[in-house]
Amino acid sequence: MSAIEKQIPFKTYLEESEMPKAWYNLRADMKNKPAPLLNPGTLQPMTAEELAGVFCDDLIAQELDNTTPFFEIPEEIRTMYKMYRPSPLCRAYRLEEALGTPAKIYYKFEGNNTSGSHKLNSALAQAYYAKKQGLKGVTTETGAGQWGTALSMACAFFGLDCKVYMVKVSYEQKPFRREVMRTYGAEVTPSPSMTTQVGQKILAEHPGTTGSLGCAISEAVEAAVTREGYRYVLGSVLNQVLLHQSVIGLETKAALDKLGVKADMIIGCAGGGSNLGGLIAPFMGEKLRGEADYRIIAVEPASCPSFTRGVYAYDFCDTGMVCPLAKMYTLGSDFIPAPNHAGGLRYHGMSPILSQLYDDGLIEAVSVPQTRVFEAAEMFARTEGILPAPESSHAIRTAIDEALKCKETGEAKNIVFGLTGTGYFDMVAYEKFHDGQMDDYIPTDEELAVYRAKLPKVEA
Ligand SMILES: *Cc1c(COP(=O)(O)O)cnc(C)c1O
After folding, report:
1. In the CATH scheme, what architecture does the domain 23-72+118-239 have?
2. How confident is the model at residue 394 (pLDDT cuts 50, 70, 90)?
3. How far, in whole angstroms, is CA 221 from its chain's centroid?
4. Among 117, 273, 333, 444, which is disulfide-ready with 146 (CB 3.0 to 4.6 Å)?
5. CB 406 within 8 A of CB 102
6. Ligand 1 center to residue 41 CA distance, Å?
7. What is the rounded CA–CA span in Å between residue 326 and residue 404?
8. What is the domain partition of the chain in residue ranges?
9. Residue 337 pLDDT class (50, 70, 90 cuts)
């Protein structure tokens, strides 16, 4: 099977002129809408006025809009997108050959920008709207560092100040990530810190804690609401972020249509759900409207299994409980994956949009242990050449597993997965894997029950 005989190119790029001109809002086609964010005090849906102190006005409008199917992408954002988009849809010929599968494997590669991930798609949009509103700057949290990097870049492009609260363990393990952010002009603070009241409180209660995304969110929100001209921005989970990330799916669909290929299944890793929500958006739209059917698979770490072992309930988005409540598949806002967990995707909850779709049986979810994820990452690096992010490698794992099932049944299915980014800053994790020092700690039911018991009591 020589690749040259095949009809489909290794890489399919759209023309710049074929890039999406509007984001697609999947909620418009959902019969069961995602549940609204609730005010933690009144337990009533958050209004635009209540959100206005935290988020930018245009982003609030996007967050609350469940009916408008398309939002035009402002020309300024499209111009920035053109610096690294359209991104290629690649055919994994060498991986297919190594697996000996009749399946055809495609991946949408979002790692071709300095942030190393898809997160720049939403960072640019959020920075643009903050600037448009005349704000001075934005605050945010970052875990592994991709979101902080993406936002730092976007703020540099649009001339905004950027304050990043970085989970302390990542700050210490990934000093170069911090330096990249500072290169783009961001101020980076390890979280929890003494610079916020919530940080001081968390440190008093848990001295020596290495932090979590939930803590860093609380600090970033406080830093925004206590400063004139600042708002808070978030890189995943929220409806607005999935909206921006729909560029991934719209481009993927356009490229597949160009090739005359119909996907059978679409696979993505799921942390807070933004890349998966964006990748599947137009396909799920067709599914919801009854125009086509696809298998859609969310892949999560076995050590942080929000979909497969969480509950669908209202929960806090952060540890300090300063954010609105969101109804989502969650492990509980205090849940922190075991310290040996290396692969990102550590958020305790999941996008409300994806949570509703999962609850409606429209998407499937699987969880995979991290050593199997790194095995897949290594195989992918050795065949396709790209060094994948551990997060993305969850999707690679499941794509490989599905391709191997096709080998057994002899079916030549079209498998599409999202390759969300590159793993150059994750070499400590790769090193642990290569040295045989990585294990697969999976939380017990008893452990998960402890966190679940602390969910806020809200009638859904
Ligand atoms: C942040 C990140 C993810 C997970 O976030 P989602 O919001 O679930 O998409 C996946 N891959 C990479 C490379 C990331 O940086």
Report:
1. 3-Layer(aba) Sandwich (3.40)
2. very high
3. 19
4. 117
5. yes
6. 31
7. 37
8. 3-18+85-116+240-452, 23-72+118-239
9. confident
Residue 115, ligand 1, Cβ within 6 A: no
Alpha helices in 260-369 (DSSP H): 274-288, 306-309, 352-359
More confident residue, 144 or 326: 326
Confidence category of residue 323, pLDDT binned at 50, 70, 90: confident
Mutation test residue for ligand 1: of 146, 397, 398, the one with most atoms within 8 Å of CB: 146
For ligand 1, atom 2, name the residue with the nearest CA: 391
Tokens 């400590």 -> residue: 428
Q: For 160, list phi and psi in degrees, rounded to 5.
A: -120, 150
Instruction: Tell me the residue type at 269.
Output: C
Task: Give yes or no for residue 349 CB within 6 A of ligand 1.
Answer: no
Please tell me if the CB atom of residue 387 comes closer than 6 angstroms to any atom of ligand 1.
Answer: no
Are the C-beta atoms of 395 and 416 separated by less than 8 Å? Answer: no
Residue-wise pLDDT for 70-95, tens only, equals 999 999 999 999 999 999 999 999 99
Q: Where are the beta strands (DSSP E) in 302-385?
A: 311-316, 325-330, 364-368
Between the alpha carbon of residue 103 and those of residues 108, 260, 403, 415, the distances in Å are 17, 16, 6, 7
Task: Verify whether ligand 1 is closer than 6 Å to residue 356 (CB atom).
Answer: no
Does the CB atom of residue 391 touch ligand 1 within 6 A? yes
Decide whether 3-18+85-116+240-452 matches 23-72+118-239 in CATH topology.
Answer: yes
Q: Does the N-terminal peptide bond of residue 175 adopt cis geometry, omega within 30 degrees of 0?
A: no
Could you tell me the two tokens for 347?
Answer: 């958020």
- Say which CATH topology domain 3-18+85-116+240-452 has: Rossmann fold (3.40.50)
Nearest to 105 by CA among 322, 453, 434, 401: 401
Q: Whose CA is nearest to atom 13 of ligand 1?
A: 421
Query: Residues of 192-213 as b/e, b for ≥16 C-beta within 10 angstroms?
Result: bbeebebbeebbeeeeebbbbb
Q: Which residue has the tokens 């490989």?
A: 400
Task: Report the alpha-carbon distance of residue 350 to residue 193 in Å, rounded.
Answer: 26
Q: Give yes or no for residue 394 CB within 6 A of ligand 1.
A: no
Ligand 1: residue whose CA is nearest its atom 4: 271
Return the SS3 of 34: coil
DSSP 175-234: HHHHHHHHHTT-EEEEES-TTSHHHHHHHHHSTT----HHHHHHHHHHHHHTSTTEEE--
Which DSSP string corresponds to 69-104?
-EEEPPHHHHHHHTTT-SPPEEE-HHHHHHHT-SSE
